[in-house]
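Lab notebook: predicted structure, single chain.

Context: the supervisor wants predicted structures on file for every construct in the current expression panel, including those that have not yet been purified. This is the next one on the list. No modifications to the sequence; it matches the entry in the shared construct table.
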Amino acid sequence: MKETKSICPECYELIDAVIYDENGTIYIEKSCDYHGTFKDIYWGDAFQYQRFGKYLQDGTGVLNNITSSNGGCPHNCGICEVHKTSTILANIDITNRCNMHCPVCFANAAFSGYIYEPTVEQIKEMMIMLYNQEPVKCTSIQFSGGEPTLRPELFDLIKMAKELGFKHLQLATNGIKLAESVEYCRNLRESGLKTVYLQFDGVTPEPYMETRGVDALPIKQKAIQNCREAGMPIDLVPTVVRNVNDHQLGAMVQFVADNIDIIKGVNFQPISFTGRIDTKKREEQRITIPDVMKKIEEQTEGVVTSDDFYPIPFILPLSHFANAETGIENVKFSVNPHCGSGTYIYVDKNHNMVPVTRFVDVEGLFEYIEELAHEVDEVRYFKTLARWRGTKKLARGIRQYVDDSNGPKDIDFARNLYNMLIHRSGNSTKVFHERMMLIGIMHFQDPYNMDIERIQRCGVHYATPDGRVIPFCTYNSFYREEVEKKFSKPLHENLKAG
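Prediction complete. Output recorded below exactly as produced.
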């Protein structure tokens, strides 16, 4: 079906790979001269693979502070000239210390034997480098780790990012610190944090025992309650492992709907295998994006279906319209269509869920927005007038794609959607998201299923103290250890100093 490049999961050498359909399942297969042939599931549904694939588009990449690939992608990340997407969300690991010992974790000082904690000045330099990216500034940061709440300067780092101009700041956390006090959660919000990205693997104790080694559910529940009292919005982030918690996906979706006042979405992340793992266990635990979509459909009894989901680049017309309307280069969600999917759900006052696809012709609407963007772009003179006319046409035209008879009865959805699309911030966005839930699925690659073409369109990057920007999947597969060792000190030295 498709030829691509991948890496050997043993020696990490760049090798040829083929992606193909076998009985309705998409596989990736590759051979290393030294370590043999490897085969893994790439996408669990051939129909959805084709449906998503038609949305493939290139973005702008990053034009400054880049490294040369020298034909060696993905072994010269930094970010290089062959990359096709700008930094949509930047991860900054502020520590690798953690107060848990999770078997599925990407990074933990107890496992690595050293402490990685960039200085405040180094972190500031990383932020400045990200914000100065061209042609599109990076304006979204996730503070991550390890467990970032163990960093005493966290509040100052959030304030610093806000002062530098970053618009969206989120925190990836296990919730232990948040469960300790409402005041801590309130301080996060008052510092400028927009979202808590809360690790959450199920609605019963069993998944946590398997993935985290401890029943962490009471901690999650307390953290959620404290955030509620502090007014600190949350997104849930479950690591999905087949035969561990994949039977609770529908229950987790309903959990979000039941707590829509403070939890605004769930981003399922199918497990990635960053270390060596035997074939049998990998096959038992591997789960892909369409598998998650299908299980959500089954477990919600068809309330949310697989066809309600669209790939991330489906929303590219919004970027094109924003560019045309403002004359400023905006973020383009040009990631590979097989990297992630999502859908919006309206939650009524009785916590019933209605996907927006039930009352919005989303494909027709986005085609219309793309047409308006082209109309404004093609005008050579009186550009300001053309932009004004474009927004007025959108205001008039948007209603033809919204079926009010099947939509929310308590809000003017078309008006709120228009306000959100045009203003994109402030009260209009708040009103739109008040009862809207985002279900996302993002599958980060590992050395077994890595497709270099997906790497080159990655929009989730890591910033490093040496000025590099590295795609998420390559960073966690083989750059993390190199970077952390370069800027770390041995764990025993830190213990002595403490």
